[in-house]
Amino acid sequence: MTNDDIMRWLERTADVLHENRTYLTDLDSAIGDADHGINMDRGFSAVRDRFPTMATMDISTRLRTVGSTLVSTVGGAGGPLYGTAYLRAAGVAAGKQELSSADVVAMLEAFLGGIVARGKAQPGEKTMVDALTPALASARQALDEGATLAQITRRAATAAEEGMKATIPMLATKGRASYLGERSIGHQDPGATSSWLILRSLAEACEGK
Questions:
Q1: Count of alpha carbons within 13 Å of 17, Cβ hemisphere only?
Q2: Burial level of 152, CB count in 10 A (0-12/13-18/19+)?
Q3: For the whole model, what pTM was predicted?
Q4: Are 187 and 27 in contact (CB under 8 A)?
Q5: Which of 35, 99, 162, 208 is the most exposed place for a label (fewest CB within 10 A)?
Q6: Total number of domains in the chain
Q7: Which residues lie below 8 Å from residue 208, measured CB to CB, with a gap of 6+?
Q8: Gap between the Cα atoms of 168 and 186, Å rounded
Q9: Residue-wise pLDDT tens for the chain (209 aa)?
Q10: Which domain holds residue 111?
Protein backbone atom coordinates (compact mmCIF):
# COMPACT_ATOMS: atom_id res chain seq x y z
CA MET A 1 0.00 0.00 0.00
CA THR A 2 1.65 3.21 -1.17
CA ASN A 3 1.31 6.73 0.12
CA ASP A 4 -1.03 7.43 -2.80
CA ASP A 5 -3.19 4.47 -1.77
CA ILE A 6 -3.39 5.87 1.77
CA MET A 7 -4.54 9.19 0.34
CA ARG A 8 -7.19 7.44 -1.77
CA TRP A 9 -8.40 5.64 1.36
CA LEU A 10 -8.71 8.91 3.30
CA GLU A 11 -10.42 10.68 0.40
CA ARG A 12 -12.86 7.82 -0.09
CA THR A 13 -13.59 7.68 3.66
CA ALA A 14 -14.37 11.39 3.72
CA ASP A 15 -16.69 11.00 0.72
CA VAL A 16 -18.47 7.93 2.09
CA LEU A 17 -19.03 9.39 5.55
CA HIS A 18 -20.42 12.55 3.97
CA GLU A 19 -22.73 10.47 1.77
CA ASN A 20 -23.90 8.45 4.79
CA ARG A 21 -24.18 11.37 7.22
CA THR A 22 -27.99 11.14 7.43
CA TYR A 23 -27.99 7.32 7.55
CA LEU A 24 -25.54 7.22 10.48
CA THR A 25 -27.43 9.95 12.31
CA ASP A 26 -30.73 8.13 11.81
CA LEU A 27 -29.19 4.98 13.30
CA ASP A 28 -27.88 7.02 16.22
CA SER A 29 -31.24 8.69 16.79
CA ALA A 30 -32.68 5.32 17.79
CA ILE A 31 -30.12 4.44 20.46
CA GLY A 32 -27.80 7.43 20.90
CA ASP A 33 -27.62 11.20 20.72
CA ALA A 34 -28.60 11.46 17.03
CA ASP A 35 -25.26 13.02 16.11
CA HIS A 36 -22.90 10.24 14.98
CA GLY A 37 -23.26 10.96 11.27
CA ILE A 38 -22.99 14.70 11.84
CA ASN A 39 -19.90 14.26 13.99
CA MET A 40 -18.13 11.85 11.64
CA ASP A 41 -18.84 14.07 8.65
CA ARG A 42 -17.57 17.10 10.54
CA GLY A 43 -14.39 15.25 11.52
CA PHE A 44 -13.55 14.01 8.04
CA SER A 45 -14.49 17.34 6.50
CA ALA A 46 -11.80 18.80 8.75
CA VAL A 47 -9.44 16.05 7.59
CA ARG A 48 -10.27 16.94 3.98
CA ASP A 49 -9.38 20.57 4.71
CA ARG A 50 -5.91 19.33 5.68
CA PHE A 51 -5.35 17.33 2.48
CA PRO A 52 -3.33 20.12 0.82
CA THR A 53 -0.86 20.26 3.72
CA MET A 54 -0.74 16.43 3.84
CA ALA A 55 0.56 16.22 0.26
CA THR A 56 4.21 16.09 1.31
CA MET A 57 3.72 13.95 4.42
CA ASP A 58 4.76 10.31 4.74
CA ILE A 59 2.22 7.60 5.57
CA SER A 60 2.69 7.73 9.33
CA THR A 61 2.43 11.52 9.50
CA ARG A 62 -0.72 11.47 7.39
CA LEU A 63 -2.40 8.96 9.66
CA ARG A 64 -1.25 10.85 12.74
CA THR A 65 -2.71 14.05 11.29
CA VAL A 66 -6.04 12.28 10.76
CA GLY A 67 -6.02 11.02 14.34
CA SER A 68 -5.24 14.38 15.91
CA THR A 69 -7.80 16.12 13.68
CA LEU A 70 -10.56 13.70 14.70
CA VAL A 71 -9.74 14.09 18.39
CA SER A 72 -10.01 17.87 18.11
CA THR A 73 -13.10 18.11 15.87
CA VAL A 74 -15.41 15.13 16.44
CA GLY A 75 -17.88 15.37 19.29
CA GLY A 76 -19.09 12.54 21.48
CA ALA A 77 -17.17 9.31 21.91
CA GLY A 78 -16.32 8.97 18.22
CA GLY A 79 -13.53 11.56 18.23
CA PRO A 80 -11.36 10.08 20.98
CA LEU A 81 -12.05 6.52 19.83
CA TYR A 82 -11.35 6.93 16.12
CA GLY A 83 -8.65 9.49 16.81
CA THR A 84 -6.78 7.00 18.98
CA ALA A 85 -7.31 4.30 16.33
CA TYR A 86 -5.62 6.35 13.60
CA LEU A 87 -2.83 7.45 15.95
CA ARG A 88 -2.10 3.80 16.78
CA ALA A 89 -2.20 2.91 13.08
CA ALA A 90 0.31 5.69 12.43
CA GLY A 91 2.70 3.99 14.83
CA VAL A 92 2.71 0.82 12.70
CA ALA A 93 3.57 2.87 9.61
CA ALA A 94 6.40 4.82 11.22
CA GLY A 95 9.47 4.95 8.99
CA LYS A 96 7.81 3.04 6.14
CA GLN A 97 7.47 4.42 2.61
CA GLU A 98 4.90 1.76 1.74
CA LEU A 99 2.99 -0.92 3.62
CA SER A 100 3.14 -4.64 2.88
CA SER A 101 0.04 -6.81 3.29
CA ALA A 102 1.36 -7.83 6.72
CA ASP A 103 1.82 -4.15 7.61
CA VAL A 104 -1.79 -3.39 6.64
CA VAL A 105 -3.06 -6.22 8.84
CA ALA A 106 -0.86 -4.92 11.67
CA MET A 107 -2.34 -1.48 11.05
CA LEU A 108 -5.86 -2.90 11.43
CA GLU A 109 -4.78 -4.61 14.64
CA ALA A 110 -3.43 -1.32 15.99
CA PHE A 111 -6.59 0.49 14.83
CA LEU A 112 -8.80 -1.91 16.81
CA GLY A 113 -6.37 -1.90 19.72
CA GLY A 114 -6.62 1.86 20.01
CA ILE A 115 -10.40 1.72 20.20
CA VAL A 116 -10.37 -1.08 22.78
CA ALA A 117 -7.77 0.74 24.89
CA ARG A 118 -9.72 3.98 24.80
CA GLY A 119 -13.26 2.65 25.09
CA LYS A 120 -12.69 -0.52 27.14
CA ALA A 121 -15.27 -2.32 24.99
CA GLN A 122 -15.30 -6.02 24.22
CA PRO A 123 -17.12 -7.99 21.50
CA GLY A 124 -20.81 -8.49 22.19
CA GLU A 125 -21.43 -5.09 23.78
CA LYS A 126 -22.98 -3.52 20.63
CA THR A 127 -20.16 -1.16 19.63
CA MET A 128 -17.73 -0.58 16.75
CA VAL A 129 -15.61 -3.36 18.25
CA ASP A 130 -18.23 -5.84 17.00
CA ALA A 131 -17.43 -4.85 13.41
CA LEU A 132 -13.67 -4.43 13.77
CA THR A 133 -12.93 -7.64 15.68
CA PRO A 134 -14.22 -10.07 13.00
CA ALA A 135 -12.69 -7.82 10.33
CA LEU A 136 -9.24 -8.23 11.88
CA ALA A 137 -9.71 -11.99 12.28
CA SER A 138 -10.72 -12.29 8.63
CA ALA A 139 -7.78 -10.16 7.51
CA ARG A 140 -5.33 -12.30 9.50
CA GLN A 141 -6.76 -15.49 8.02
CA ALA A 142 -6.57 -14.08 4.49
CA LEU A 143 -2.95 -13.02 5.06
CA ASP A 144 -2.06 -16.50 6.33
CA GLU A 145 -3.66 -17.99 3.21
CA GLY A 146 -1.47 -15.86 0.96
CA ALA A 147 -4.27 -13.62 -0.29
CA THR A 148 -3.53 -10.39 -2.15
CA LEU A 149 -3.89 -7.05 -0.40
CA ALA A 150 -7.12 -6.42 -2.32
CA GLN A 151 -8.50 -9.77 -1.15
CA ILE A 152 -7.39 -9.20 2.45
CA THR A 153 -9.05 -5.80 2.73
CA ARG A 154 -12.19 -6.95 0.91
CA ARG A 155 -12.58 -9.91 3.25
CA ALA A 156 -12.04 -7.60 6.22
CA ALA A 157 -14.76 -5.26 4.95
CA THR A 158 -17.16 -8.16 4.38
CA ALA A 159 -16.55 -9.46 7.91
CA ALA A 160 -17.07 -5.94 9.28
CA GLU A 161 -20.41 -5.73 7.50
CA GLU A 162 -21.49 -9.06 8.98
CA GLY A 163 -20.34 -7.92 12.42
CA MET A 164 -22.25 -4.67 11.99
CA LYS A 165 -25.47 -6.52 11.15
CA ALA A 166 -24.89 -8.84 14.12
CA THR A 167 -25.24 -5.85 16.45
CA ILE A 168 -28.96 -5.54 15.61
CA PRO A 169 -30.20 -8.24 18.04
CA MET A 170 -27.60 -7.34 20.71
CA LEU A 171 -28.36 -5.70 24.04
CA ALA A 172 -26.16 -2.63 24.39
CA THR A 173 -24.05 -2.73 27.55
CA LYS A 174 -21.57 0.02 26.67
CA GLY A 175 -21.86 3.71 25.90
CA ARG A 176 -24.94 5.87 25.43
CA ALA A 177 -27.03 3.02 23.99
CA SER A 178 -26.67 1.03 27.22
CA TYR A 179 -28.97 3.56 28.95
CA LEU A 180 -31.87 2.15 26.91
CA GLY A 181 -31.49 -1.38 28.22
CA GLU A 182 -33.83 -3.78 26.40
CA ARG A 183 -34.96 -1.01 24.05
CA SER A 184 -31.51 -1.07 22.42
CA ILE A 185 -32.30 -4.51 20.98
CA GLY A 186 -33.35 -4.47 17.33
CA HIS A 187 -31.23 -1.48 16.30
CA GLN A 188 -27.98 -1.50 14.32
CA ASP A 189 -25.08 0.14 16.11
CA PRO A 190 -24.00 3.39 14.40
CA GLY A 191 -20.36 3.04 15.48
CA ALA A 192 -20.14 -0.45 14.00
CA THR A 193 -21.66 0.99 10.84
CA SER A 194 -19.10 3.80 10.50
CA SER A 195 -16.33 1.24 11.14
CA TRP A 196 -17.65 -0.86 8.27
CA LEU A 197 -17.75 2.20 6.01
CA ILE A 198 -14.12 3.01 6.86
CA LEU A 199 -13.00 -0.56 6.09
CA ARG A 200 -15.08 -0.68 2.91
CA SER A 201 -13.30 2.50 1.83
CA LEU A 202 -9.96 0.83 2.57
CA ALA A 203 -10.92 -2.15 0.39
CA GLU A 204 -11.94 0.18 -2.42
CA ALA A 205 -8.61 1.99 -2.18
CA CYS A 206 -6.78 -1.34 -2.46
CA GLU A 207 -8.76 -2.74 -5.40
CA GLY A 208 -6.43 -4.21 -7.98
CA LYS A 209 -3.44 -4.34 -5.62
A1: 30
A2: buried
A3: 0.96
A4: yes
A5: 208
A6: 1
A7: 150
A8: 5
A9: 999 999 999 999 999 999 999 999 999 999 888 899 999 999 999 999 999 999 999 999 999 999 999 999 987 788 999 999 999 999 999 999 999 999 999 999 999 999 999 999 999 999 999 999 999 999 999 999 999 999 999 999 999 999 999 999 998 887 767 767 777 899 999 999 999 999 999 999 999 87
A10: 3-205
* Alpha carbon distance 143, 149 (integer Å): 8
CATH number at residue 61: 1.25.40.340
**Among candidates 89, 126, 124, which has minimal Cα distance to 110?**
89
Compute the distance between CA of residue 41 and CA of residue 196 in angstroms, rounded to an integer: 15
| Three-class HEC string of the chain | CCHHHHHHHHHHHHHHHHHCHHHHHHHHHHHCCCCHHHHHHHHHHHHHHCHHHHCCCCHHHHHHHHHHHHHHHCCCCHHHHHHHHHHHHHHHHCCCCCCCHHHHHHHHHHHHHHHHHHHCCCCCCCCCHHHHHHHHHHHHHHHHCCCCHHHHHHHHHHHHHHHHHHCCCCCCCCCHHHHHHHHHCCCCCHHHHHHHHHHHHHHHHCCCC
Which amino acid type is present at position 15? D
Cα separation, 186 vs 167, in Å, equals: 8
